From TrEMBL:
Keywords: NAD
Cleavable signal peptide: none
Stored PANTHER family: SHORT-CHAIN DEHYDROGENASE REDUCTASE, SHORT-CHAIN DEHYDROGENASE REDUCTASE 3B
Keyword NAD annotated: yes
Record's protein name: Short-chain dehydrogenase reductase 3b-like
Pfam families in UniProt: adh_short_C2
Family per record: Belongs to the short-chain dehydrogenases/reductases (SDR) family.
Highest taxon above the source species: Eukaryota
């Protein structure tokens, strides 16, 4: 028998079904835990089977399950959406979070195959998840919420590697165009742009310890005294997934402590 979840506050996603890609670690894992805590049935979608099963086991809820999905493969995306529909009877929330960093090189040495893979994962994968999740919502007349993970690198040049930055700019564009069409069906589409995080993805890419990534980010952060964590980003996703953001659509919510709206080269203070 699955353990019951104790709520200290009113659950904000009770009765809703959420699909989260890239949910075996990092931001996606934090969101899966938080969404489940707030009453949602959650499909954890990823290609890291062992990690995903650990997440499912630790959440310990009969309303949380795993479905393997490589977002670069359209058929797998369609299958994962269908799995959510068949297992839980609907789909209210898509958190399209799966992504990669891509080549860490100068533009002069950019590996175009690496660029292609970053675009296939971060852009084509997001487009595929939006496509099939939105189809399900439209067909069932569900006024759902679609959330995509972008980045501060989608707002500023030099805030990330070239392939990664290009792909995250495209994610923001997809969110805006999807918002313009899906609003007619009552479906909200937004994205989140986090500042530098010590996720397994970032640590592996830069070959740094979590404490080193946090120290590097904190050194250039605008907001001092707070270290950004995956839970902070998950809480932003919870807001966009819940009815508290019922009239919020087409937005890029920066979880960056003001990093993208201030000048880091000049200050009059």
């Amino acid at each position: 028998m699955a353990a019951s979840v104790a709520f200290s506050v009113q659950p904000r996603l009770e009765g809703k079904v959420a699909l989260i890609t890239g949910a075996a670690s990092g931001i996606g894992e934090a969101a899966a835990r938080l969404f489940a805590e707030h009453g949602a049935a959650v499909v954890v979608a990823d290609i890291q089977d062992e990690l995903a099963h650990r997440v499912i086991s630790s959440i310990n809820s009969e309303k949380v399950s795993y479905h393997r999905c490589d977002v670069r493969d359209e058929k797998q995306v369609e299958s994962t959406v269908n799995y959510a529909l068949e297992k839980y009877g609907g789909l209210d929330i898509l958190f399209s979070n799966a992504g990669i960093i891509g080549p860490l090189t100068s533009i002069l040495d950019l590996d175009l195959k690496g660029l292609d893979n970053a675009m296939a994962t971060n852009v084509r994968g997001v487009a595929a998840t939006i496509k099939y999740a939105a189809r399900a919502m439209v067909d069932r007349k569900i006024k759902g919420s679609i959330i995509c993970t972008a980045s501060v690198a989608a707002c500023l040049g030099g805030a990330g590697p070239h392939a990664y930055s290009a792909s995250k700019h495209a994610v923001v564009g997809l969110v805006k165009t999807a918002c313009s069409e899906l609003g007619a069906h009552g479906i909200r589409v937004n994205c989140i742009s986090p500042f530098g995080l010590a996720t397994p993805l970032a640590c592996d890419a830069y070959k740094l310890k979590p404490s080193e990534v946090e120290a590097n980010s904190s050194a250039v952060a605008n907001l001092k005294g707070v270290v950004l964590t995956t839970k902070h980003v998950a809480e932003a996703a919870l807001f966009l997934a819940s009815d508290e953001s019922a009239y919020v659509s087409g937005q890029n919510l920066a979880v960056d402590g003001g990093f993208t709206v201030v000048s880091h080269s000049y200050s009059c203070f």
